[in-house]
Sequence to fold (342 residues):
Amino acid sequence: MEKKIAEILGNFTEAAKNASDSDAVEKLRVAFLGKKGEIAELMKDLKSAPAEQKKEFGQKINLLKKDVESKLGELAAAIEKKELEALINSAESYDVTMPSGVETGSYHPITLVQRELEDIFAAMGFTIEDYDEIVDDYHCFEALNIPKHHPARDMQDTYYLDNGQLLKTHTSAAQNAIMRKYGAPLRAIFPGRCFRNEAIDACHENTFFQMEGIMIDKDISISNLIYFMKTMLSEVFQRDVKVRLRPGFFPFVEPGFELDISCQVCGGTGCPSCKNSGWLELCPCGMIHPNVLIAGGIDPEEYTGFAFGLGLTRLAMMKYGVKDIRTFNSGNLKALSQFESL
Ligand code: FA5
Fold:
């Protein structure tokens, strides 16, 4: 038995010298430690050994097994390390700055303009708020000093749900909730998708984006409003653009203004994008009507404020020189993916 044990150890040592990869190590394991391997066969022989030697031989076989296991473990670790080093040395080197060739998405131009405006207003101390797309009549109209049957509703026909709710026609629909949430003083912008039953053309969509802004504090005046509008436009366009301010009527502001931008598509000479007028209505605004402040839980004797409702989709048209507003909802990736990749 002892001779056999020495022979197996010798065989193993010899075979181990020739094992050069992990496959060979595995074969070695099966040959010596496997169920039908040499050590298992030796165990079978133990049965026929004289009774008084069984214990001693059993211990020796166990020592042999442990010895083979430990040598095999060392061999496997050494070979694994060698194989890993070889893999690292032979690996092709990659230039991680090379374009991947994989198609990535791109930001929608409206998202780009929206984010730019959010940064501009955040830097001026405004918070950015989110609001529902489905609202009730109170928030969309009544809280904004537009009672039922008021003619101003005609301009904002929309899609109604069976339960009386509606798809919001303007971001002003969030004014009341935001006033109630924060109280005064308050500076907030709230971009959002709006819906109108609209005859669509190059500058009108039935689904478009606006971005509302309100600032309420003590002694806020039209000068503050004009300052913020000018800053916003010069930051967005990074150049002088011609704008005009003219009186405009909205029941929720007093006084109210229309802020128009000279059409950036035709340079103001007139084209389908501006309905041949050379101007595009961009950002109506005004001083918040006292009734709206009261509805929002703010005392108009103590606070005043301004509000504006920027046509975000139209601003994107003007900024990027997009001739037809319908491009934005078209899903035409060739047109929409040329602005900024993800
Ligand atoms: C309003 O929606 C008012 N809530 C804006 C406001 C807010 C006034 C706060 C005063 C104080 P108006 O309907 O004009 O106003 O829309 C505002 C802007 O949204 C327009 O100047 C235009 O740029 C854009 N807009 C309106 N309708 C459409 C449309 N169908 N398609 C694309 N843009 C539109």
